[in-house]
Write the structure tokens for this entry.
Amino acid sequence: MRKREYLDSVGDIRFKFYQNKDDFIVDEVPNIEFKGKGNFLILHVKKVEMTTWDMIAVFSEYLGIPAQKIGYAGLKDKHATTTQYISVESSYEKMMKQFRHRQIKIMDITRHSKSIRMGDLAGNRFSINLFELDNIDAGRLEKCARKISKNGLPNYFGYQRFGRDSDSFKQAKDMLSGEIFIEDPKVKNFLISIYQSEFFNNWLRERVELSRKENDGKYLILDGDIYLAKDGKLVTPKIKPTKDFESKKLVPTGLLCGRDTFRSRDDALEIEKKYDDEFLQAKGYRREALIYPQDIECKYIKKQTMLNLSFTLPKGSYATVFLESIADRNYSAKDVKKS
């Protein structure tokens, strides 16, 4: 896996952070307003040191229903304290009010007319403790974070996307070429997502390097780029939309290769085609090349040489990528495990 490169960083600051229940907090931000009435219960749930799948399995067993009957919007980290929304049919309200579990707490129950579906979230709010910082470096870090918020963060897939096995991309290539056979559909889909994500990350790395070389570190848009508009539609302007890009009305996108998706044109295509597989039968997508961290808050605690950094990211993006950009280094799971 090639190194993820960034546009902005402090560079010479070294801090530590740990993915655990006390120092890594994630709160899901829904994109729908629950009506307070309807045939579905909406549960605001807090879980500690537990995957979303494990939490769903607990509720599935408790209610005696298939896991598929439980709606959720997104997957949350295991090594953290996280809150998210799930849905079940309203007939289980009495059982839910009696539910008790040492790692799961139901914080609130309301109702809605529809079940929650995958993707029904605006983003996630993070609160992360950064350690071994003096007050001067904490101030520099905050300044860098706010600069990234303004100029944009390269929207890489983080190390979590690629699983524990460093050979996952090779496995994916071997599967797609017929060298190995994978029967489990979940494993097949996982390997395909790794294949697409690796290509996307390598494409974005080249675009970042070009931006640093030719545009003074600000993301360089090219003729033929495809953009995501605020209404969620993809647009292909005939000329470079510099003003709309700078005002964040349009966000450039990169390719997750596959069928039934747009390819870029002109100068943008010259780079994109290096990271494409037109024969891949899986569904393709476009992913934002940049995201903009919002609502940044910093609180420095001198006695602990600790900075609490809070921020909101759109769905599908990674808090660890934001921290990588600030520190100008790539992290792995072993780097954020507290010894």
